[in-house]
């Protein structure tokens, strides 16, 4: 019997084996998804909401108000898009070009650098299906998938049987966790958990490279050299290794050079691949779409047909320096994720918010349009954290328009 | 032996077993409950022992037949236990055994439903039946200790 599977857009894993029971256009039961996915899938709402100054209006008024704000702005900020489909992201890039906007997403302060390195072929990559079928050593560095991507270990990295790994996790796989605290993932890794002090990642990388070369590994925080040598020995023996890089590692490094150096050192002795642990379901899609268009993954400014790029065009810097005079926030909540000192500058400019949820930002916005949840109420495509394109379809119907529809209408109104 | 001490020790065979010792063994294996011993339940002089025994076997109420308890408030549906469970892998190697959605739900012990693990088909669990073993595949793989055997 052919089953009807849906894609969960709750996180960057895009699990494509979710079954749902729908009753009266409402999702009643969700099978196989984790708790994050279940909460996400059940969050659908039938009625639409269009608010201007927190007062309900009709769709046309809200769209024309949004278009007016963008038209009057000299340098609007378009931010978010981590939870929008590829199609909506491409439209947002077009819109940014048309309005000479500053365009950025949350990757400018998370894993954007890593994705840029991957897209520029600085290190070996693999897909999550390769991980399931072949990987014998997985390193979780600065990431806790048990909490952020709950099915990562059971669906791909550690527990499943794959075509070349049929005897199971006890015999054929090793999971290693390097982190500053004993996370839930670290608990599963047992003896292969290496606890380092906050900010100690760069030194640990140097020590590990030394150990791989057969030298005595030294760290200023006196990490037992014997344990680093033991780790190096496991890594040397890996036939197909994967390093899952999380924000913990990226935040701790000044730049990615030590990580690339480590990947090169590992690949001299063994066979190692890098997979970024991306939180939102289509951040990678945004980075790839913008990369194709401009050659940069985030923080760009369109001006008279040219593209400028630099940290000054990131959401944090442009709000801090108050260089933007309006904002279109799509599927993100800067008031919750950015420091107050920076987010408060958003109160001084007119803000348009497209989001399925009512957020702190939406309550302080000039225009708020409640959009459909992709993968639950609207279809499209997205790019998984390992770079694989995944198509998804809606499970229930709603009156709420998708990000794509709203952006199309705003474009027309302009 | 402690269980035996609390029984009437009359070997009356009313429970269907040949002796009180056999009843104690059955009690231990959770094949029978203290209520299956008629004198213990009915005669006032055994009342104290009966209450004590009922108290001992109380934690297993709410647990499944193999003594498996899922703490639903702790479980977040990662599915590690579902994929690691040996009978699950044997009965559905290309579904849950490979980390994917179940394709043979009729014979799976553990599945994830609404983000929480659900135990079913306990006849398949390795802790069940005559040839049971103390398998702990679902316990050691759980990051939050949401599965317990009593």
Automatic annotation (TrEMBL), chain A:
Look up keyword Metal-binding and say if it applies. no
For biological process, the GO terms are: methanogenesis; respiratory electron transport chain
Q: Record keywords: Oxidoreductase included?
A: yes
Record's GO cellular component terms: membrane
Matches recorded under Gene3D superfamilies = Dimethylsulfoxide Reductase, domain 2
Q: Write the record's keywords in alphabetical order, separated by commas.
A: Oxidoreductase
Per its UniProt record, what CDD domains does this chain match? MopB_FmdB-FwdB
Query: What domain of life is recorded for the organism?
Result: Archaea
Q: Which GO molecular function annotations are given, in alphabetical order?
A: formylmethanofuran dehydrogenase activity; NADH dehydrogenase activity
NCBIfam families per record: one_C_dehyd_B (TIGR03129)
Q: What is this protein called?
A: Formylmethanofuran dehydrogenase
Automatic annotation (TrEMBL), chain B:
Q: Where is the 4Fe-4S ferredoxin-type domain?
A: 66-95
The UniProt keyword set, sorted, is: 4Fe-4S, Iron, Iron-sulfur, Metal-binding
Gene3D superfamilies with a match to the protein in the record = 3.30.70.20, Electron transport complex subunit B, putative Fe-S cluster
Query: Which residues does the UniProt record annotate as the domain 4Fe-4S?
Result: 1-55
Cross-referenced InterPro entries: 4Fe-4S_dom (IPR007202), 4Fe4S_Fe-S-bd (IPR017896), 4Fe4S_Fe_S_CS (IPR017900), ACDS_complex_subunit (IPR051069)
Signal peptide bounds: none
Asked if Glycoprotein is a keyword of the record, the answer is: no
Q: Which GO terms describe its molecular function?
A: 4 iron, 4 sulfur cluster binding; metal ion binding; oxidoreductase activity
Pfam families with a match to the protein in the record: Fer4, FeS
| Matches recorded under PANTHER family | ACETYL-COA DECARBONYLASE_SYNTHASE COMPLEX SUBUNIT GAMMA, PTHR36214
Query: Which protein are we looking at?
Result: Tungsten-containing formylmethanofuran dehydrogenase 2 subunit G
From which organism does this entry originate? Methanosarcina mazei S-6
């Amino acid at each position: 019997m052919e089953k009807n599977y849906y894609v969960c857009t709750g996180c960057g894993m895009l699990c494509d084996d979710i079954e749902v029971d729908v009753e009266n256009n409402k999702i009643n039961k969700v099978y196989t998804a984790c708790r994050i996915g279940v909460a996400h899938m059940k969050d659908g709402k039938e009625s639409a909401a269009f608010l201007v100054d927190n007062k309900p209006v009709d769709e046309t008024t809200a769209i024309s108000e949004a278009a007016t704000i963008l038209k009057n702005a000299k340098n609007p900020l378009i931010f978010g898009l981590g939870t929008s489909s590829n199609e909506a992201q491409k439209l947002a890039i077009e819109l940014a070009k048309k309005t000479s906007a500053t365009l950025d997403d949350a990757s400018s302060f998370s894993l954007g650098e890593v994705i840029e390195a991957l897209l520029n072929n600085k290190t070996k990559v693999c897909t999550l299906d390769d991980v399931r079928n072949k990987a014998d050593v997985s390193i979780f560095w600065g990431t806790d998938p048990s909490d952020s991507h709950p099915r990562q270990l059971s669906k791909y990295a550690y527990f499943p049987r794959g075509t070349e790994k049929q005897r199971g996790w006890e015999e054929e796989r090793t999971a290693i966790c390097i982190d500053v605290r004993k996370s839930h993932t670290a608990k599963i890794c047992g003896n292969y958990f290496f606890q380092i002090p906050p900010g100690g990642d760069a030194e640990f990388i140097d020590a590990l490279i030394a150990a791989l070369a057969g030298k005595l590994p030294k760290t200023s925080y006196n990490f037992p050299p014997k344990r680093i040598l033991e780790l190096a020995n496991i890594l040397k023996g890996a036939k197909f290794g994967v390093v899952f890089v999380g924000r913990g590692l990226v935040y701790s490094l000044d730049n990615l050079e030590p990580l690339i150096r480590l990947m090169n050192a590992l690949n001299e002795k063994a066979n190692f691949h890098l997979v970024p642990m991306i939180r939102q379901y289509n951040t990678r899609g945004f980075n790839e779409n913008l990369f194709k268009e401009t050659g940069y993954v985030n923080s760009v400014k369109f001006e008279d047909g040219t593209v400028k790029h630099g940290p000054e065009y990131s959401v944090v810097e442009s709000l801090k320096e108050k260089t933007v005079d309006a904002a279109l926030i799509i599927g993100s909540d800067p008031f919750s994720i950015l420091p107050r000192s920076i987010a408060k500058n958003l109160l001084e400019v007119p803000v348009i918010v497209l989001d399925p949820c009512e957020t702190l930002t939406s309550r302080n916005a000039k225009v708020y349009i409640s959009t459909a949840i992709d993968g639950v109420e609207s279809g499209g495509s997205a790019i998984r954290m390992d770079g694989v394109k995944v198509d998804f379809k809606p499970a229930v119907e709603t009156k709420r328009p998708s990000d794509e529809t709203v952006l199309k209408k705003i474009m027309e109104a302009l | 032996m402690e269980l035996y001490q609390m029984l009437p020790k009359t070997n009356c065979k009313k429970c269907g077993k040949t002796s009180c010792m056999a009843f104690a063994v059955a009690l231990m294996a959770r094949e029978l409950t203290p209520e299956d011993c008629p004198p213990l339940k009915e005669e006032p002089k055994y009342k104290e022992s009966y209450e004590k025994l009922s108290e001992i076997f109380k934690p297993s109420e709410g647990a499944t037949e193999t003594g498996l308890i899922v703490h639903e408030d702790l479980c977040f549906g990662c599915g590690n236990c579902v994929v690691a469970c040996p009978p699950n892998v044997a009965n559905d190697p290309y579904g849950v055994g490979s980390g994917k959605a179940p394709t043979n739900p009729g014979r799976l012990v553990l599945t994830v439903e609404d983000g929480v693990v659900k135990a079913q088909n306990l006849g398949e669990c390795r802790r069940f039946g005559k040839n049971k073993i103390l398998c702990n595949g679902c316990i050691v793989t759980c990051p939050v200790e949401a599965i317990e055997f009593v």
